[in-house]
Specification:
Elements lengths: L22 H15 L3 E5 L6 H33 L7 H45 L42 H8 L3 E5 L2 H11 L10 E3 L3 H4 L11 H13 L4 E5 L5 E6 L12 H10 L4 H11 L3 H8 L5 E5 H5 L1 H7 L7 E4 L5 H8 L2 E4 H17 L6 H20 L11 E6 H7 L7 H10 L2 H11 L8 H23 L9 H11 L14 H12 L6 E7 L7 E6 L2 H4 L1 H6 L2 E6 L5 H9 L9 E5 L9 E6 L18 H17 L2 E7 L2 H13 L2 H5 L3 E5 L7 H14 L7 E7 L17 E5 L9 H14 L3 H18 L10 E6 L6 H4 L4 H4 L3 E3 L4 H17 L2
Parallel strand pairs: 1-12, 1-13, 2-6, 2-7, 3-6, 7-12, 14-19, 14-20, 15-17, 15-18, 16-17, 18-19
Antiparallel strand pairs: 4-5, 8-11, 9-10, 10-11
Helix pairs in contact: 1-2, 2-3, 3-8, 8-10, 14-15, 14-20, 14-21, 17-21, 19-20, 29-30
Subcellular location: Nucleus
GO biological process, one term: establishment of sister chromatid cohesion
Organism: Rhynocoris fuscipes
């Protein structure tokens, strides 16, 4: 029921914070509360270490509790008012009309109250059942958990046939919305999302510190890769394949085994007693009760599922209707198909997107799509084999659309046709979507119907199943492998003939031939059907992008020396319109982060593009929780020898510049205790500098004071390097060594999500400005698009924002709590520009020093800073 302004909630003074909140935390919670209550959109910046997660939890959940109580009170008060204000009238006709209207209103209110009561009763019953299950310790049923070995002959080739496709899609009526679905859309809940499951688990651990733990109903949604407990499927690493296999097992009927002759022909099909359905689909509601009765992260849910022998994936989705908080990764909210697949409704909900500093780039990435020549060739090979196998069994309609899919794949391979001899220089070209569709000659196809055909007939799933089991009727040997390769080579030759109008020599262009050979060599499609995932899914994903607003995207065609190495990419230029449904449907959308500058980017390029007026956008930015004297940020314009620091592309590789940064590091390592983290603009430049330092004894000089570490290339080595770095710092106490130096990269593995608190990060050094490659065709097109749609300077602003957002994330790795202290050196004279300084985090502005003339004051400030903290920490 709608409520008047007089019913608006005002922020309380008590938010059930686990301890006495600081002033900035209280301000954060009150602003968050008001933004949600007024159905506005918020941009909240709170530096790491200021209790941002706890402020979000206590602010949002306090509002939700008050809102739920308010909704019931409004209904009850409205019912009382109607009864009190019902006065008799002399006009019997008016009295009857009024009585009918009153009766109708009363029925509506009672119905809504009844729904609330039913929901509350369901919650009570759920908690009661959950307690009983906990007492029973959810002992798994041995029969349900039986994992018999899979019968490789358990296959019926008729299951590979496509279901009949109904192409009458022009008259696709909206499905009737059930009363339960209607009720579900009226429920208000908090939807919290972040980048990774580890960040979501950390958020959940913060809830455990509060009083909200006892009666908050929370669901942590994750993919099948996180939640699947079926031992038959756990070996599958490709998410698309796992999804298809899971659905296949749910739809499985009574198993059949197949007898074959020596040549692989089917002789007889026999019924088998072995179950093919997933054994973990039972007792879903029981596990759902457990999930809702306790606050559990992804690991706890997975463990509970294993213990109960029940699928956590479907149990979490079953839990959504009664959940107050749903936590899940970005993709599952920002991507419409993923959101709909999870059954999550946004209407009336509050969407909180944490770590939102790169939201626009994330949305662009999620809604872009790329297909390689390798995938196109493999998909064409698989589809051709599939078509040949069942040619006489397809309906006319299915065969028509199957041929269309094959033709489009041919058209895309033609676009990526291998280069002629002597022309091996790679090229990248940009096209509008409509130009690409016309030039590739696919404009006469209805992509909407074609995609519906692929989805409705489960073409990718059928094709995958066919490739998995094709060895039962095709003899896979070296001769077959050669035939497949030859077929693709002939196919590419045919494309060349059509394009040039000339007859091509029997020896097909060696590069194109090598592309085909590379796809088949060592792994025939029949033997490795999971190669590169499911190539057809990548192609349909790309085709769905072509169905979007043509003005919002571009097509990148990158041609390499072979077809297989080339690719076609759909690039989304306007990310805001891709998530306009999130902005329109949700009650309120909150963007939160430690560093949200430049905030104007979110206002102008997200909310305003989606039609949100400026008066509905609230911004909140607080200072750091640490005292001013605990932060020492300095812009360093000159080095120890007086050389101006300019790490622009043309000058950064000069020996003079590298020597100067070496002198700076030696000086800094002499006066800064414990850990120093030095960020470079790129991996290439870090490698170049390190090799120069190593060759010219700079590393040797630094090592007299600090042991030197480098960011590893492999993500799997990060934990080891960090452990060694930490150990070196701890072991340096009371020795000639005074800590360690870690070379890292802005935007790399150590620049986000990792904390260098206390002794691990007493100084953070940013060498140069990490601008992206200005010659990148994708960046050029993006800047051009922004200048055309957002103003002549918009492209340049976007370019600078990309750089400074990356810098701000690296700077934020240090100072993680109130008693922490650290220095930050921005080493490049370009940081002294006023408009660049404004893009730094606000908590740095008050303390920021700009040393333009000499390096001496920089070193003096560092010495003074650390001597002060050495005295105060004793």
């Amino acid at each position: 029921m709608e409520f008047k302004d007089s019913n608006l909630l005002t922020p309380p003074d008590d938010f059930q914070f686990p301890f006495q909140p600081y002033g900035i935390q209280l301000d954060f919670m009150k602003n968050l509360y008001s933004t949600i209550e007024e159905k506005k959109f918020g941009i909240f910046e709170s530096p790491t270490g200021t209790g941002k997660s706890l402020s979000i939890i206590c602010g949002a959940l306090t509002w939700l509790r008050n809102h739920e109580e308010r909704e019931v009170k409004i209904l009850e008060d409205a019912l009382k008012d109607i009864k009190l204000n019902t006065e008799p009238s002399d006009d019997w006709f008016s009295e009857q009309i009024k009585a009918i209207a009153v009766d109708s209103t009363v029925k509506k209110i009672k119905k809504q109250l009844e729904k609330v009561q039913i929901r509350n009763d369901s919650i009570k019953e759920m908690r009661k059942r959950a307690k009983e299950k906990v007492k029973e310790k959810i002992i798994p049923n041995s029969k349900q958990n039986s994992t018999n070995k899979e019968d490789t002959n358990n296959y019926d080739e008729f299951d590979d046939l496509l279901e009949e496709f109904c192409d009458n899609l022009d008259e696709d009526p909206q499905k009737d919305v059930s009363e339960e679905e209607e009720d579900e859309e009226t429920v208000t809940r908090i939807i919290y999302c972040s980048r990774t499951h580890s960040q979501l688990s950390q958020f959940i651990s913060e809830i455990e510190k509060t009083k909200f733990l006892e009666d908050t109903r929370l669901v942590h949604l994750a993919s099948r890769q996180n939640y699947c407990i079926n031992k038959k499927l756990q070996h599958i690493t490709n998410s698309a394949t796992l999804n298809e296999k899971c659905i296949e097992m749910q739809e499985a009927k009574e198993s059949k085994s197949t007898k074959s002759d020596k040549e692989g022909n089917t002789v007889k099909k026999l019924k088998s007693s072995e179950p093919t359905k997933c054994p973990h689909m039972k007792s879903i509601s029981d596990l759902s009760d457990i999930i809702l009765s306790q606050v559990m992260d992804v690991e706890a849910v997975a463990q509970a599922g294993k213990k109960a022998g029940t699928c956590p994936y479907y149990a979490t989705r079953t839990s959504i209707p009664l959940a107050q908080i749903v936590v899940l990764p970005y993709h599952s909210v920002l991507h419409k198909e993923s959101r709909e697949a999870s059954g999550l409704k946004l209407k009336n909900s509050v969407v909180i997107i944490d770590e939102a500093h790169n939201l626009l780039e994330t949305v662009s990435h999620i809604h872009s799509s790329q297909i390689t020549g390798q995938e196109l060739i493999l998909a064409h090979s698989q589809l051709s084999l599939y078509k040949d196998r069942y040619l006489n069994k397809f309906s006319a309609v299915n065969l028509l659309y199957l041929n269309q899919v094959l033709h489009i794949i041919k058209a895309f391979i033609r676009v990526l046709e291998g280069k002629s001899e002597g022309c091996i220089k790679p090229s990248t070209n940009m096209f509008s979507v409509i130009d690409f569709i016309l030039s590739s000659e696919i404009d006469n196809y209805n992509l909407y119907k074609l995609l519906a055909f692929c989805k409705q007939t489960k073409l990718a799933h059928k094709l995958q199943r066919f490739m998995d089991t094709a060895s039962s009727f095709v003899q896979v040997n070296q001769n077959k492998k050669t035939n497949v390769t030859h077929g693709i080579s002939e196919f590419i030759k045919e494309l060349k003939q059509k394009k040039t109008g000339k007859k091509v020599k029997t020896a097909v262009d060696s590069r194109a031939d090598n592309a085909a050979q590379s796809e088949i060599n060592n792994s025939s499609p029949l033997e490795d059907s999971d190669y590169k995932g499911q190539p057809l899914l990548q192609i349909t994903s790309f085709l769905s992008c072509l169905n979007q607003d043509y003005s919002d995207g571009r097509i990148v065609i990158s041609k390499e020396s072979t077809v297989g190495k080339s690719y076609i990419k759909y690039l989304l230029l306007e990310p805001a319109r891709a998530i306009i449904d999130v902005i329109k449907e949700a009650r309120s959308v909150i963007l939160a982060g430690g560093t949200m500058e430049p905030i104007s980017e979110f206002k102008e390029r997200l909310f305003e593009v989606c039609g949100v007026s400026s008066d509905r956008i609230n911004t909140f930015s607080c200072g750091h929780i640490v005292p001013k004297e605990n932060i020492l940020p300095i812009v360093v314009c000159k080095g120890p020898s007086g050389k101006i620091f300019d790490f622009s592309f043309n000058s950064r590789s000069s020996p003079e510049m590298i020597n100067e940064i070496g002198r700076l590091l030696i000086n800094v390592c002499n006066v800064v205790p414990s850990g120093v983290v030095c960020f470079f603009p790129s991996y290439e430049y870090e490698k170049e500098v390190y090799e120069y330092f190593d060759k010219n004894d700079v590393i040797k000089k630094i090592s007299l004071k600090k042991k030197v570490f480098r960011e590893p290339k492999k993500a799997s080595d990060v934990e080891r390097v960090l452990s060694d770095y930490t150990t070196a710092i701890k072991n340096s106490a009371n020795k000639t060594m005074n800590g360690a130096l870690l070379f890292s990269v802005v935007g790399g593995k150590l620049s986000e999500g990792l904390n260098f608190s206390d002794d691990l990060g007493r100084c953070v050094i940013i060498v140069g400005m990490p601008f992206p490659n200005i010659k990148s065709p994708e960046l050029i097109e993006k800047m051009k698009y922004l200048e055309e749609h957002c103003g002549s300077n918009a492209g340049k602003i976007h370019y600078e924002n990309l750089c400074m957002k990356a810098v701000n994330q690296s700077v934020g790795r240090s100072i993680r709590h109130r008693n922490d202290y650290s220095s930050v050196l921005l080493v490049d004279q370009r940081y002294s520009r006023a408009h660049i300084c404004k893009l730094l985090p606000k908590w740095m502005h008050e303390s920021l020093k700009v040393e333009q003339e000499r390096f001496g004051p920089v070193l003096a400030s560092l010495c003074k800073f650390f001597k002060f903290h050495e005295r105060t920490s004793r």
